[in-house]
Amino acid sequence: MDFLEGNLELRERQRLEGHTDRVWSLAWNPATGVCGIPAMLASCSGDKTVRIWQQGPSGSWDCSAVLEDNHTRTVRSCAWSPSGKLLATASFDATTAIWECVGGDFECVATLEGHENEVKSVSWDASGSLLATCGRDKTVWIWEMQPGNEFECVSVLQGHTQDVKMVQWHPFMEVLVSVSYDNSVKIWAEDGDSDDWHCVQTLNEASSGHTSTVWAVSFNSNGDRMATCSDDLTLKIWDTSAKASETSGSSCGSWVTQYSFYLDLFCDARDKRRHLCTISGYHDRTIFSVNWSRDGVIASGAADDAIRLFFESKDNSVDVPSYKLLLKKEKAHDMDVKLSAMESKGT
Amino acid sequence: MTLGLINANPVVHAKKERVARAEDSHADDAVDRLDVFDSVRDIRDPEHPYSLEQLSVLSEESITVDEKLGRIQITFTPTVQYCSMATVIGLCLRVKLMQCFPPHFKVDINVTPGSHADEESVNKQLNDKERVAAALENPNLRQLVDECLYSSELYSL
User: What is the ipTM of this complex?
Assistant: First the structure.
């Protein structure tokens, strides 16, 4: 599909009502919406509940479950495990609950405690065995799932100097990204040798990064690009392609085996990701969320109640990619658009 | 807990005379800066039994309304440079405006430039929607905000 040709429209299919306070986040169940399995969506709210919505045979959406009487404050974020069997919910009550779907009903099978205050985001890695959470206590926690739905904290990552707004795993590598009120984006990975998690790169103003709170991050489906959005009214696109193996192969030549380990370390972490371009001038209020669809469309949700869609324009005369606005849907919501989660099916 | 008040001797000003609004000259639905000022002028200061207007924390001039864009901007002047109640005052303003005006209005609240030692930090917190929401879920803070908002109703009787 060539997005840049023709008139595009964003049409509201249905309004899902039920929550009694603002909806902060949504997540599509990745195991649904394909092979005849009806699509399933989770939404979480300031009303302290999580609602599960399913698309019925007629195509309309109904609320199939309400996960309540668990969190005691706003549920800020939710994320399905890659298998679609578990749902993690992160709350301002400082806990993260893990729910298991058993025949349409949801049961809380674990509660992760440790953060000192509001948990703001939760993300599963591609294998489904690691979970990351972050919060206002400036830390990022990594948890490992053990048999019997037991979770063990593997690492508490310190480095951000302020509230951490969101965490997101790379689509297939065990690399974690966190974005913060301290205006920076941090990349975390495990040190091959010691199994210690540490910050391998910080993308801040000096690296052409954001100049105000970074609210969200989203990888493209290949994992070679990521988009971040900020209170500084810009979206930034970053190159996250794994160049280390190429670099050590070509410019470092063929080296004696005993030195290659040190080379890997040198070529590996420090400057792997770089700024590609900044999308500015399109938003006049805080951009709270960004999401990259499978087809390469970047959607942004902002505090001016609008949803904007961007697509890379293939202008071969320029080395640096540039993004064009595909469409802007004003008054998409009555109030700020907090999260746009692209449908897993794609269009 | 600090034992002394941050500003033990605030300067108290007379309240501005209230002008009765003629019904015809003011369209019912349109929001203007006096509407906004009227909604916040009597909010009680967290530390002293005086309103924000009396302490010159706010004035009608410190408010801007863009009806077309749906934006309200307020700047307020804490009574002292190191006022730790600045964020509380800001929260009171947010809550009051949320209660009084339609939800589509976008509200920006800042301290008057140069009026506070931690100006950037205070402004950033007051304009971070998530931080504001979480703060208002804190029962102690919510209680303090409610006291500042509701005691003003006693004065207006």
Answer: 0.87
